[in-house]
Amino acid sequence: MKKIKKVVSVLTICIMVVTLFQPLSANAATTYYYVSTTGSDSNDGTTRATAFLTLTKALTKATAGTTIFVLNGTYSYSFTFKLTQSGTADAPIKILNYSGHTPVIDFSSQEYADSSRGFQISGDHWIIAGLTITSAGDNGIHISGNYNRVQDCLITKCGDTGLQISNGGSYNTINRVTSTYNYDSKTNGENADGFAAKLSIGPGNVFNSCTALYNSDDGFDFYYATNAVKVYNSEASYNGVGDGNGNGFKVGGNYSADNHYLEGCTAIGNVKRGFDQNNNTGYVTLLNCTGTNNDVNFYFPKAPSSGTHQFTGCISIGGTNKDKIVGATVTNCTFNQ
Ligand SMILES: [Ca+2]
Ligand SMILES: [Ca+2]
Ligand SMILES: [Ca+2]
Q1: How far is the CA of 287 from the centre of ligand 1 (A)?
Q2: The sheet that has 178-180: what strands, in order across it?
Q3: Nearest Cα to 249, choosing from 283, 228, 272?
Q4: Which residues line ion ligand 2, judged by CB < 5 Å?
Q5: Element of type H or E holding 6
Q6: How far is it between the farthest Cα atoms of the chain?
Q7: Interior/surface letters 38-49, b for 16+ CB within 10 angstroms, e for the rest
Q8: Mean pLDDT in the chain?
Q9: Which ligand is nearest to the CA of 243?
Q10: Nearest bound ligand to CA 196?
Q11: How far is the CA of 332 from the centre of ligand 2 (A)?
């Protein structure tokens, strides 16, 4: 009995020592802050009852492992949130809606200018989820960093592309984001896409179940991406306003050879093309993609410089002008040629 007691007390001491000397990183992984329209920036921000008033204040606390919960309400900002710090793979930095809440981040007081983005993510390992982001002077979200994730957000009424990856951004994942009614009014709509991964991105960028509707330029634009993008189960419909190009999925540009992959994607009622090669000299894979009632549903008029386009299980329905399919291996598709 004595022996058992001794073992138990030794164990207790061991547990206490372990608890006392837990590495700091374990604590860092559980740091939560709250932002509320009824909060105050002189609070400590660590509970709902002592929430901060501004996201600006919460972001001054953000290091690897920080989670910032944003509660219901509209938060108006006239400047860009520059997310320059980085999380890690195990401890990303998160900006999330508080469970069941639908906060709106409103940038309508921003100047209409190329520098007026809503969130500019040049850091790595950020997660932004559950926010409505509206009326930025330029992009709602611009990503040039790596391993970031944006999901379950609505991005709308921005003065340029809703969500853009550029400048080498790599391994970013965009899940279930809707980007709609983005419109660059001063240039009569020629630039604002729903989503863009264009102008020199890095590898590994993926869009899952995203929707681009009623944007002035293109739904998805991969102009001069210089690396392949993957898109799954996404929709680009009714894009094209004013001087906008009005393509659903613009999968190339500037004669860059980028072997993009699209699976289960749908393009309906875009002013110009549902799926548009746009001078991509690489080959594009389209698996189970459908174009319906675009001016042209599938427009691939040029053979790739190497390889062949891989079109499988694709369907073209309606459309004002005929599809153009050149240099493709076509399997089980119904094109209108
Ligand atoms: Ca712009
Ligand atoms: Ca354009
Ligand atoms: Ca475009």
Answers
A1: 33
A2: 74-76, 104-106, 132-134, 154-156, 178-180, 211-213, 235-237, 266-268, 290-292, 315-317
A3: 272
A4: 190, 217, 245
A5: helix 2-20
A6: 91
A7: ebeeebebeeee
A8: 93
A9: 2
A10: 3
A11: 32
Q: How close is the Cα of 187 to the center of ligand 3, in Å?
A: 12
Query: Tokens 């309906």 appear where?
Result: 268
Q: Any catalytic annotation for residue 94?
A: no
- As a whole number of angstroms, the distance between CA 275 and CA 324 comes to 10
Q: Centre a 10 Å sphere on the Cβ of residue 5 and count the other Cβ atoms it contains.
A: 9
Using an 8 Å Cβ cutoff, are 201 and 224 in contact?
no
The active-site residue out of 6, 250, 272, 324 is 250
Instruction: Report pLDDT digits (tens) over 123-177.
Output: 999 999 999 999 999 999 999 999 999 999 999 999 999 999 999 999 999 999 9
Helix (H) or strand (E) holding 10: helix 2-20
316/256 Cα distance (integer angstroms): 26
Structure token pair of residue 258: 């980028």
Contact 218, 247 (CB under 8 A): yes
Token pair in block for residue 242:
């004013």
Pick from 128, 136, 137, 1: which is nearest to 70 by CA? 128
Q: Is the pLDDT assigned to residue 53 strictly greater than 90?
A: yes
Write the pLDDT tens digit of every residue in 278-300.
999 999 999 999 999 999 999 99
* Backbone phi and psi for residue 286, each to the nearest 5 degrees, phi listed first: -120, 115
Nearest ligand to the C-alpha of residue 190? 2
Which range among 7-16, 118-127, 216-225 shows the weakest confidence by mean pLDDT? 7-16
CB 333 within 8 A of CB 313: yes
pLDDT of res. 129: 98
Task: Kindly calculate the radius of gyration of the chain based on its CA atoms and give it in whole angstroms.
Answer: 24
In the structure encoding, which two tokens stand for residue 265, read together? 């994607």
CA 138 to ligand 1 center in whole angstroms = 5
Sequence-distant (6+) residues with CB within 8 A of 142 are 117, 119, 120, 121, 163, 164, 166
CB atoms within 10 A of CB 170: 18
Q: What is the 243 CA–ligand 2 centroid distance (Å)?
A: 7
